[in-house]
Model the fold of this input.
Amino acid sequence: MEVILIFISAVLVNNFVLSYFLGICPFIGVSERIESSVSMGFAVTFVLTLSAAITWLINNYILIAFNVPFLQYVSFIIVIAALVQFVEMFIRKTSKTLYYALGIYLPLITTNCAILGLALFGALRAYSFIENIVFGIGAGLGFTLALVIMAGIREELDLADVPEPLKGAAITLIIAGLLALAFMGFAGLISV
Amino acid sequence: MAAKDDRKSVGVEFVKGFWKENPILVMLLGMCPTLAVTTSVINGLTMGLAVVFVLTCSSLIVSIVRNIIPKQVRIPVFIVIIATFVTMVDLFLKAFLLDLSKALGPFIPLIVVNCIILGRAEAFASKKGVFLSVVDALGVSFGFTITLVILGGIREVLGMRTFFGHPVLGEGFEPWIVMLLPPGAFITLGLLLGVKNSIDKRLKEKRSR
Done:
């Protein structure tokens, strides 16, 4: 039950993009076409899930066991960078199609704050191993959901008459605000 | 003559971060701390000063070691340098300003992946000398801080009727709770971008006339 709550909370109620502001850069940068936003979303979900598992192991079996929690940030970011690199090499060897579909988005994920944010939130809330992985999957799907909705709106926006100074990033942010307002409707669903 | 040019370019490097290359409003970097912590002026200011410290120190170190690092591994090296300074700031806040540290939560450690810092390290500090790099870092990070304070100011005044914790609007003003919530952050920043764009447009028209 607890696990289901964590999942729903990460996808809808505490959506990473719209209520924690994590991963805003790709949210604004890569949300112009639905196709590329789907690819980006799945790449992020994949890395989020893997890094949720690995950072949990490192945090509990190395950092806490040896009592060096102050090394958390340095070790997390190194693990994430190495992980992204590894995933990239692995995908290139095993599936060329997937590799070309993800393209530039893979290396970009290292600096996506959602990944480090997830590792930090997981450590802060002291989730168990399974809970942390579910949290990772949920956060990734939530990110994908927000990105795809945004891309859908922005494709329509090409035809809209936006005031000159608000064109580009400004109107994207305002739309994100309205989306966040809509997502707040889920807040009553559960309280985590 | 050369000295004069140097002095002029130092001024230019410092000032450009405030308007022409403002990290938030022009380059759209570092959005996640910008939106997340600006529920009040003091939070925005603390975040800004933390970034000032991290960016200045890491630019200093990066520009010192830039010739020793092999090109292929420079990004991981930069990230480790940045993460070290972020850890220092985090421990400092936890030791002396515990309330603020709690209010900012995981957003202080998230400075590590703030693209402003890696961006400056990559685009400026790894190419230019020590002194110019520090000036550039100071300019950009103060530009960031001022933007955070403005954003925090708007949200705090409208959302809680206070500024720096002092009441500024009378009882008759009903606080807009939404300003303190995520939608308020997105919309305020979007409108702020719009205001900046229209001022820029006006300035351009004036100059061409």
Remarks:
- Chain A has one domain: 2-185.
- Chain A touches chain B at residues 18-25, 28, 70-74, 77-78, 81, 111-113, 115-117, 120-121, 124, 163-167, 169-174, 176-178, 180-181, 184 (CB under 8 Å).
- Residues 86 and 127 of chain A are 26 Å apart (CA to CA).
- The two ends of chain A are 13 Å apart (CA to CA).
